[in-house]
Predict the 3D structure of the following.
Amino acid sequence: MTFRIAAATSVLAIATLPAFAQETETPDMTGQAELVGNMGKIEANIAEAHARLFTHMLLPQDDEERQTYSEAFSNDIASVDEYLSLVQDSDLSAEGAAEIENFAAEWSEVKDLADGLTDASRDELASVDDIKAFSNAVLELDDYIDAALEAAGLPDDDDAPE
């Protein structure tokens, strides 16, 4: 009896092998992987810029490190702009492109706020209210990034398993 079951299972497996061996077309995920990667780099550079600007604003006026942080901050801003340009040039749905443009508009406002803070902090330390406003604006950028990823049909960090 066991032999018959084993033989029948083997015959069934051999008979269905051609169906399993057929090539299935795998979707090209390269564009989506690049989009997720570039959005991740945007988030990382925004976080770096945020931290550097805070440090720059809180260092004493005569501290020589202020210039180092200011330059690093400028580099982080330029990196965000570079990756944003790559994302804008990606093949996006209309909804995804609209969300990216919403992010770009908000990012422009955050950059203006940051420029004002770095300019003002050259002469005097930034106020707590200014720092809070900048921090809140940066945190809101994450919502725009999440919306853009969702519009592109991709998971955002809020969808990650816990």
Remarks:
- Residues 94-123 form the longest helix (30 residues).
- Residues 1-17 have pLDDT under 50 and may be disordered.
- Helices lie at 2-21, 30-58, 65-88, 94-123, 128-151.
- The radius of gyration is 25 Å.
